[in-house]
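README, section 4: Worked example with a bound small molecule

Sections 1 through 3 covered apo chains. Here we extend the same pipeline to holo records, where the ligand is supplied as SMILES alongside the sequence. The molecule in this example is calcium ion. Nothing else about the input changes; the structure line simply encodes the ligand pose together with the chain.
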Amino acid sequence: MPLVVPLALTEEDGGLTPECEAALMAIFKRYDVDNDGALSNTELDAFARDTNGDVFDEDTLTEITEFLDLDSNGHLTLKGFLQMYNLQTSSEPEETWKDLQKHGYDTKLKLVASRNEDNDDRSGINNTAEKSSA
Ligand SMILES: [Ca+2]
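The generated complex, written as structure tokens:
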């Protein structure tokens, strides 16, 4: 009988599946601390450290700035972040699974753990949305 196959991360046309995209968007948002829609160097470093154990090396940073979508400050946008994962996933889906699992996703792309965020509540929804309208 069939083996347990993880969800496909890409579709026939090579694009990321909506489920995969949603998970990656949630990860992006977690690292976009100032919520400006792009990862500054500090934010990107934090992401890389949590994902790979170290910041991106020069070559990787050069590739990012040369090939991916950046904002006017030269920071990686959500679009660029998804491009990065689309590229990686087309060639090495297992790498993307590794990253997703690092960030708390299981093989069904459900968030089962949150990485080093003890104070996070279980909703996992944007906990920075504090509105002081009074
Ligand atoms: Ca940011």
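What to look for in the output: Helices lie at 18-31, 41-52, 58-67, 78-91, 93-102. The longest strand covers residues 38-39.

Section 5 describes how to batch many such records.
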